[in-house]
Amino acid sequence: MNQSQQYPSTLLQKAVTEISRLPGIGSRTALRLALHLLKQDVVEVDALADSIKEMRHNIGYCKVCHNISDTDVCEICGNESRNKATVCVVENVRDVMAIEGTLQYKGVYHVLGGVISPMDGIGPADLQIDSLVERVNKGGIEEVILALSPTMEGDTTNFYIYRKLQDSGVKVTVIARGVAQNDELQYTDEVTLGRALAGRVPFKS
Amino acid sequence: MNQSQQYPSTLLQKAVTEISRLPGIGSRTALRLALHLLKQDVVEVDALADSIKEMRHNIGYCKVCHNISDTDVCEICGNESRNKATVCVVENVRDVMAIEGTLQYKGVYHVLGGVISPMDGIGPADLQIDSLVERVNKGGIEEVILALSPTMEGDTTNFYIYRKLQDSGVKVTVIARGVAQNDELQYTDEVTLGRALAGRVPFKS
Q: Can you give the pTM of this predicted structure?
């Protein structure tokens, strides 16, 4: 199938164009999805389209941690048994879900909505950083755990937040970096391996 | 991320569930797409959802060849310069687009809408086979080219159509099978290679 492809219908073409705007979906996949939708019941296609519109129009965010939430204060922030003195800073809701999936964390979150990335035009003001500083200054928080992606953008954001919080008296920690569980050492990249060596800890049996 | 994942919002969860019904899209990808959509302008998200609904509600089919079309008779069937005596039988619109992409074919098409596949509950009555026979019986057609996928379902459908047309006097041909251009012989599967040997033709320089 070549680029100069003529679609036999402008309705089909419009849908394919819109679907292929989604990240990671090219025009071939978009056509496959559009043809799949044409074979489905009208009710099912409407359910898909409506669920997307409804989500976009009516989604809400927790006013405390800025995670996606149907209520003013999300379930985690509203949970009496969570430790409100520990705040884990993450990029987005997927990271919250990943950390919740470990069943290891009993504190609360602060969702930045991204990381500082000048290349993508995302600066500190586009993120929930001021609201984090405000939240810390209100008191009651003992530790802020930085759990951003181990990338240059994540590191930049970590450093920016650290600078903003260093005079607040709160303990700022960052999640451990090292070799991943079950990764083979020979295939671990040099930066990770170098950091794992430099960050070695006493052996505990 | 594990299976027992709790989404922080039912709106998000509903959209993810709907998106993950699409073929080849799992719940992880669906979540990524949903979060992408949440970051887009409302106008853009509405454009996507509306284009899908509009396509599903208003799509039409050519009454001659049953290809997707915005008009009663599609552009190919309505084109004076196409040879109406040669009809190429294909499974769906993607195959029409692929053959049109070769710029080698000047005849017209007949789109079956699928192939006979008892496993998927698709029988001859679910396809545009009767309308093909009717079209041939009306006269004016000299050759029917079977261009279905070289699979068991395609072969079954080829045979079924051949049987239906064998008394009509029309010439029934099937597209050539053999080794694909630029494929390395050593990696060609045995069935294809065996058929290519059996179907050898005189060398022309």
A: 0.78
